[in-house]
Specification:
By secondary structure, this protein is of the alpha/beta class. It has two domains: 2-18 and 239-425, Alpha-beta prism (UDP-n-acetylglucosamine1-carboxyvinyl-transferase, Chain), CATH 3.65.10.10; 22-236, Enolpyruvate transferase domain (UDP-n-acetylglucosamine1-carboxyvinyl-transferase, Chain), CATH 3.65.10.10. The chain has helices at 22-28, 48-59, 92-95, 105-112, 131-139, 172-182, 198-209, 241-253, 269-278, 315-322, 342-348, 378-390, 401-404, 410-416, and strands at 2-7, 13-17, 39-44, 63-67, 76-81, 89-90, 114-118, 143-147, 150-154, 163-166, 188-192, 213-215, 222-225, 233-236, 257-261, 281-285, 288-292, 302-303, 328-332, 352-356, 359-363, 372-374, 394-398, 420-425. Strands 22-23-1-24 form a four-stranded mixed β-sheet, covered by helices on one side. A four-stranded mixed β-sheet has the order 2-15-17-16. Strand 20 and strand 21 (359-363) form a beta hairpin. The model has no long low-confidence stretch (mean pLDDT 96). Bound molecules: ligand EPZ.
Length: 427
């Protein structure tokens, strides 16, 4: 296992290439199940979760080919082909390692008329139920059975007849599963209060390129007219708006000036608004976003919400930045029940944070000191890196497998802009 050793104090300056979006890639990859023809995805990030999903697809008989990319390049091209499916079961030992595996349920049901997926357990940030995934599929005409820790979904002969489902809670994954199940239905499926995240738009754009008929893309009301078959496509994964926001916070806490190459401002409005309120200069340019922080950081209140609101996946990173702002910030986490695990670790670096339920009160401090800290979940881990970049002395971040799930070659990207950060083996 590795660890990161960071010596804080360097001002970040230069250009950081932004990779393809993890949370888009994890819903685009299972789309290959929906056709016998090749689906080629470009700009896939090199991440542990992507490798895991590739392995899961291979279990179903899907062939995957990584096409010519040099080791030093960021991102890669993957072609997936599923002329026939040899298994419609996603086993526990794979699903437990990567909860996004649940996203094979909808497309496998659409392709095979049945799918059996191990129930994903909870995770560090919450118990993460999948009831909405199952209710949406049932609304479209699927029969659902739960047994021995597995979900089995079955469609009537001839495919899902279609139907309507109104989400009581906005759910990204349940929206994705429902859309992927609906594209091959024998009837029309309508979703209300569906998630509107850019990753859902990316999914709908790929499915449309494959021949799906989807109306209302980008809105919370989606209508999908089932078609008999889909064809292959080549598609470029969107830029990772959360990775871009994470590096923006890293640049800001060091008083730096960084260009986020490939970032899309139109997908990051709430994050950029928050940064501007904190006093960070943001300039939207062709091909990316310039971030410049040379003045004092100001305390700002933030509440997470479904897109287009402030992203829960940016909460930990913004908290780390606000630890160095002048004044007191109030953060409210409305999406997940346990997404403050970065707080005790930030406190060990000198942060002044009090939490009560889903509210965190962050009082800015003049200085933070490096410490040995432990990563607990993906975004919390990055908040510790952000704090370490501005802390006095050395910060050691352990359990890097959390970071490697969602940030492509993080230490190389930070070294590009002058960070004193090394990845070393952890004895
Ligand atoms: C996706 O998770 C993302 N993961 C998460 O990113 C992200 O935080 C989350 O959406 C919210 O934006 C991927 O895309 C792989 P939800 P997902 O279903 O789909 C409740 C990261 O750091 N809910 O929108 O699991 C749920 O408990 C990860 O990259 C139900 O009650 O999130 C939560 O409170 C972390 N029943 C809320 O809805 C369900 O059936 C939102 O969850 C499903 C969800």
């Amino acid at each position: 296992m590795d660890k990161l050793v960071i010596c804080g104090g360097n001002r970040l300056e230069g250009t950081i290439p932004i990779s393809g979006a993890k949370n888009a890639a994890l819903t685009l990859i299972p789309c290959a199940l929906l056709t016998e023809e090749p689906v080629t995805l470009r700009n896939l990030p090199r991440l542990a979760d992507i490798d895991g999903f590739q392995h899961l697809m291979n279990q179903f008989g899907v062939t995957t080919v990584i096409q010519g990319t040099r080791p030093q390049d960021f991102g890669r091209v993957m072609s997936l082909e599923a002329p026939r499916i040899t298994s419609s079961v996603a086993p526990y030992d794979l699903v437990r390692k990567m909860r996004a595996s649940i996203l094979v349920l909808g497309p496998m049901l659409a392709r095979m008329g049945e799918a059996t997926v191990s129930m994903p357990g909870g995770c560090a940030i919450g118990n993460r139920p999948i009831d909405l995934h199952l209710k949406a599929l049932e609304a479209f005409g699927a029969r659902i059975e739960l047994a021995q820790g597995y979900v089995k979904a079955m469609a009537p002969d001839g495919g899902l007849p279609g139907g309507d489902f109104d989400f009581p809670v906005v759910s990204v994954g349940a929206t994705e599963n429902a859309v992927m199940a609906a594209v091959l239905a024998s009837g029309t499926c309508r979703l209300f209060n569906a998630a509107r995240e850019p990753e859902i738009v990316d999914l709908c754009n790929l499915l449309s390129a494959m021949g799906a008929e989807i109306e209302g893309i980008g809105t919370s009301d989606l209508t999908i007219h089932g078609v008999r078959r889909l064809h292959g496509a080549t598609y470029r994964v969107m830029a990772d708006r959360i990775e871009a926001g994470s590096y923006a916070c890293a640049a800001a806490i060091t008083g730096g000036e960084v260009f986020l190459d490939g970032a899309r401002a139109d997908e990051m409005h709430a994050t950029l608004t928050a940064l501007r309120l904190i006093g960070v200069e943001i300039e939207e340019r062709r091909g990316g976003i310039a971030v410049h922080a040379d003045g004092p950081l100001k305390a700002t209140d933030l509440t997470t919400a479904p897109y287009p609101g402030f992203a829960t996946d940016m909460q930990a990173q913004m908290m780390a930045l606000l630890c160095r702002a002048e004044g007191t910030s109030v953060l409210k986490e409305t999406i997940f029940e346990n997404r403050y695990m970065h707080v005790p670790e930030l406190r060990r670096m000198g942060a002044d944070i009090a939490t009560e339920g889903r509210t965190a009160i962050v009082k800015g401090v003049a200085r933070m000191t490096g410490a040995e800290v432990m990563a607990t979940d993906l975004r919390a881990s990055f908040s510790l890196v952000i704090a370490g970049l501005a802390a006095e002395g050395e910060t050691v971040v352990r359990r890097l497998y959390h970071l490697d799930r969602g940030y492509e070659r993080l230490e190389e990207k930070l070294q590009l802009v002058g960070a004193d950060i090394e990845r070393v083996a952890d004895d």
